[in-house]
Amino acid sequence: MNPARSLVLNRWLAISGLALMILLILLVPGVVKMIVVAFLLAYIFDPIVTAIEVRGLSRTASTIVFFLFVISIAWILFSILAPVVYNQIQTMRSGAGSRQNSEVILRLQAVVRTKLGFIGLGTVNLQEKIEQFSSYLSDTIVDFILHEGLSMILYAVTVPFLVFFLLKDGREMKKMFIGIIPNRYFEFALDLLYKMDLQLGNYLRSQFTDAVVFGVLATIALWLLGVKYFLFIGVFAGLANLIPYVGPIAGALPAVAVALFDAGDVTLALQIVLAFIILKLTDDMLVQPLLVAKGVHMHPLLVLLAIIIGGELFGMLGMLLAVPATGFVKVVLQESIVTLKKYRFTD
Amino acid sequence: MDFWSLFGIKKHEGKRVRFRDTLRSIPIFSELGRRELASVERILHKREYAAGEVIFRQDEPGLGMYIIETGRVSILTDQSHDNMTELGDGEFFGELPLLDGGSRSATAVAKTPCRIFGFFQPDLFSLIERNPRLGVKIVLSLAAIIGMRLRAVNERVQTLLAQGAPPAATGRRLRPKKAEEGSRRQ
Q: Residue B114: closest CA among chain A residues belongs to which residue?
């Protein structure tokens, strides 16, 4: 076939494929979440697979080795942590019933009744309200697990599957994408893609490592303080730390709530607040400068808007992904402008 | 006719072998083994240009070199609009930005419909990261070619100075010659 005609045909095929993909994404919105999560994870784990590849293995073999390693770690963690998680859910379901706890609530109830009687809280039963809320919370968690079970299984199967192929064939996919760019813009696109790859990779990996470090430190701190459900709260604090400004506070709140309402210990609540302040300072002064040295600077207002929009569109997951996604858009725009200036496309 | 040729496999294999021979004939890849050439081939970008289409423009950022599989390419400069050189099948051009990422010192235009392979700096960096042994071989070959050209330029300067040309005039005369574009197959 004539080279020019085959090029036009290839381009049309690629554009049709892309349009079909966009249509599919719009028709099945859940797919967007899966693709975004898989894309981010593939970006984060790519250097590990490349490091295995350097040992002389093919890309496919390196990806398989990496997945076998991840599955083994996940299995070990699951067998160690599953009983702990089960016990923590059971304890949560059995409610806040300790004697010490009841005493604190009764004291609090007396204060509320005397001081806030004028706003209609003179006969409030705080013990009952807290028990109702606690039971509602644990039932909601169990309901969520039962009802969302199928979609969680779908996620658990589809996301690793997507990550596997993005890791294995990501390079070819990039090459295919570059292949459909018209000749005039193709070197520019390659240049841009390379710079974005570098910046975005650094940014996402540093955010992920920071979340893991913060999560581990928070779990250890809560365990040392003897806080119940330390594992849940620690993991939550690590994830919440991905959301700037509100994240660390949101991460500390459940621990403080558990200390106050479950253990009925005000001193413990203060210790938790202090621990989180120390953790945040350590994160800001030690961990972040080491990891996020080449971070993407974003205006606080932009970050806040991104979190709100992410939350509105995709809920909790949207809030977590809002900042990396905004970072991605910012890097794309920034690099596009810088690279575009160097090329004379107006000629 | 054998079984595989029914599916066009032999045809592609033949094409691939021919292309690897073309690659091996390029000084940068001449020291590479069969598997190493296959690794290089995987990172090349295949492009097709119509006659008269610009491949790259002078002074624009350069990202790497091009290897002509089929067709003819003219190398021109903005100042003279003259054909500095014309290149054909198996020849390569624009290799300096592969090392320094600098701007193009000439314009390359497809004279006939061309099938060209691009070898670019980001892919070379990625190859160095994944296969440092192969990466070093390529970079050393590139350095050797550039060293050879520097020696040739030095000899030319010496000859011109010996002929009594003032240093400024020597520099002016040499300027177009130090262009990185338009390397002929050795």
A: A3
